[in-house]
From TrEMBL:
Keywords: Membrane, Transmembrane, Transmembrane helix. SUPFAM superfamilies: Invasin/intimin cell-adhesion fragments. The chain crosses the membrane at residues 15-37. Gene3D superfamilies: Immunoglobulins (2.60.40.10). It comes from Haloferax namakaokahaiae. The keyword Nucleus does not apply. This is Carboxypeptidase regulatory-like domain-containing protein. The keyword Transmembrane helix applies. Residues 43-106 form the DUF7382 domain. Residues 96-117 are annotated as: Disordered. It holds the Pfam family DUF7382.
Length: 147
């Protein structure tokens, strides 16, 4: 009986064809699923950045205009710009929403510590609620230099 199985080669005739068919069907199914996932726009996010003008200032009271932009440089309305002390000091955390053209003007009075010739103010941005924007990267800091 064992000799009958050893000499029978019909059992493996269909196996390679079945493997090829399974592989082709699997690759086609994976291709369709990846195409569906890449077409979903709800998963896409856009990084925000803040451009202060001026970005180098001296100590003392002044108005600084911040422009909030997306990754393509388009202005973003409704984002909240937050400025806080870094190695330079301001009395309290300041914030303002960006309006038309993505601009927000904030009145700041930066100070440098004793024996400091320069310092920075940290700028963050909170994206508008319900938007696909994010702020994961550091934004441009404001450099404060002694007069």
């Amino acid at each position: 009986m064992l000799e009958a199985f050893q000499s029978d080669t019909r059992a493996i005739e269909g196996l390679p064809i079945r493997l090829v068919i399974a592989l082709v069907v699997g690759v086609a199914a994976m291709s369709v699923m990846l195409n569906m996932l890449s077409g979903v726009q709800g998963l896409a996010t856009s990084e925000l950045d803040v451009k202060p003008d001026p970005d180098v200032v001296t100590p003392g009271p002044q108005d600084i205009t911040f422009t909030v932009v997306d990754h393509e440089g388009n202005p973003v309305e409704g984002a909240t710009v937050v400025v806080k002390s870094g190695t330079a000091d301001i009395e309290k955390v300041e914030h303002k929403k960006s309006g038309d053209g993505g601009e927000a003007t904030i009145h700041l009075d930066p100070e440098l510590g004793p024996n400091r010739e320069d310092g920075t103010l940290v700028v963050d941005v909170k994206p508008p609620a319900g938007s696909s924007f994010v702020d994961r990267r550091d934004n441009t800091e404001i450099l404060v230099v002694a007069k």
